[in-house]
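Data availability (excerpt). All sequences and predicted token strings are deposited with the supplementary files. A representative entry, Ammonium transporter, is shown inline so that the format can be inspected without opening the archive.
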Amino acid sequence: MPPINAGDTAWVLASTALVLLMTPGLALFYGGLVRGKSVLNMMMMSFSTVGLVSVLWVAYGYSIAFTTDKYQGLFGGFEALGLRGALDGSTGADEHKIPVLAFAAFQLMFAIITPALISGAIADRAKFGSWLLFVGLWATIVYFPVAHWVFGADGWILSKLKAFDFAGGTAVHVNAGAAALALCLVLGKRVGWPKKESFKPHNVPMVLLGAGLLWFGWFGFNAGSALAANGLSAMAFMNTQVATGAALLGWIVVEWLRDGKPTAVGGASGAVAGLVAITPACSTVEPIGAIAIGLIAGVVCALAIGLKYKLGFDDSLDVVGVHMVGGAVGALLIGLFATTLSGGTGDINGVFYGGGFGQLGKQAIAVAAVGGYSFVVTWLLGWAIDKTIGFRLSPEAEAAGIDMAEHAESAYELSTTGGGSAFALAGIAPAPKVEKTAAAPEAEKVGAE
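Structure token line:
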């Protein structure tokens, strides 16, 4: 058993905390994009996922995803239920001299954010209890097995197909994006979408703050996936930064040419698209290739989000256009831009570096397999929940505001005359309304002078 490397362990633990930060960052990003009467529900969908998936991961999720395969590369065994065998200070694979428990904690954060990403597609209209049931079932049936396919040492995509996905372009983003498409089809459109009511973001600075936290945390997501503080993590770090910057520029240029003005929301969305696209490729391309991937992803995703209006599906916060499309773009472009000159993982050269089309084909199979499996199973899960306990909020509750309907509180208490919110339920009376006296107009006049 190799000794534990303290520096590598410290880097993985720090990366674990960075990836956890991404889920609150996502909550802010999504929360700013919805209406003011939906922001708390939107954020709670992310925060509740942190709690639920953490428990499921310890109970059986890690075991399904990362123990020795006994089922033809489809999912692992059950010998690590409750994280048995991960508490004795043993290390992971020989080349990764870190405690198994550190690796399990790091991968837990991926398991948390993946279902949280789906929530943006069904903003404003999902019952909170039904959402929690969905997350538990989806993580169990979809994410944990797919994580084994892509990340497990003997998972079929990694070990048999030999498709590359360094940090989760397929397992996280294509997976979540395909699920988002299925779920928004099951739940249907928001009341009034897209014509009767404005669904503009209620707080753009919150969107930018959330995007900034996602960008910051993503260095743990990508560079942390090296599982060591070494040259590979440094390369993933640099590629993450330059691809994200290029995607931001690509997105706002599309807006500039198409709409006449670049927007702050577009810049934030472009940055996220770049982060998504470089995730699978950050260990196999040079920085110049990362810039190309980011630029392509920014342009393609900016154009892709318009498909929901043409095809008629209500993906509230463009999860499909950013995560499914961005993840697929990044995974496929490995087949074009991968190079052994980068010194990263994988002994492959893409088409642009003298390789053939074989790797591109393998990447396409991985994207199609993950996306297809996720879409079909998610549609069935969503349909079953909707037909049993109900998934969709009532039109009346949706119109009144999902925050009050599902959580009995609101994000912004701007009125001094009404009840409502958890404060009212607790018996805390609102501040008395100040009535103007006869002298008030004169006082206002004097003050103005």
